[in-house]
Amino acid sequence: MKTENQIGIMVSLALSCVLLLTACLSIQKSETTTPSAPWLTNLITQAEAEPHLLQAVYTLEHHQEKYYLTVPGCCDRFSVLYNAQGQKICSPNGGFTGRGDGQCGNIDIRTLSKTKIWPKKSADTHQNMAK
Q1: What is the residue extent of each domain of the chain?
Q2: Which of 16, 64, 78, 105 has the highest CB neighbour count under 10 A?
């Protein structure tokens, strides 16, 4: 027979698991945000004209700085991380090895909260870009 203390511990563990799962599921948001930077609007317009160019565009935040990640549409191409001004920072993944160009320094996109801003189709189900 379980004591009240054991039951309390089990309830606390169950609630902790639910909270942890909720936090993990909310890391990658699927909100849609309208891009306001002209360079980003141009990039998305080009991607819409060439359907296999990009798979998705995400916003990320690292040390209170906003970044944009473009995920290629296919086949051993690099993803590209841009700063808010549209300057290429690095390629965090992709390429033949899947490890990017090695120029991202301390930015690890796998640990950052991502918000998908393109494509805006809610039924769009692409593979996880942070493998």
Answers
A1: 1-27, 31-118
A2: 78
How is the chain classified by DSSP, letter by letter?
Answer: ---HHHHHHHHHHHHHHHHHHHHHHHSEE-------SHHHHHHHHHHHHSTTTEEEEEEEEETTEEEEEEEESSSSPPPEEEETTS-EEE--SBTTTBBTTS--TT--GGGS-EEEEES--TT--PPPTT-
| CA atoms of 78 and 92, how far apart (whole Å) | 8
In the chain, what's the furthest Cα-to-Cα distance?
Answer: 67
Q: What is the per-residue pLDDT across 38-48, written as a single tens digit (0 to 9) for each?
A: 999 999 999 99
Q: Are 84 and 65 in contact (CB under 8 A)?
A: yes
Q: Is the pLDDT score of 80 beyond 90?
A: yes
Looking at residue 102, the DSSP 8-state letter turns out to be: S
| Residue 92, amino acid | P
pLDDT band at 36 (very low <50, low <70, confident <90, very high): confident
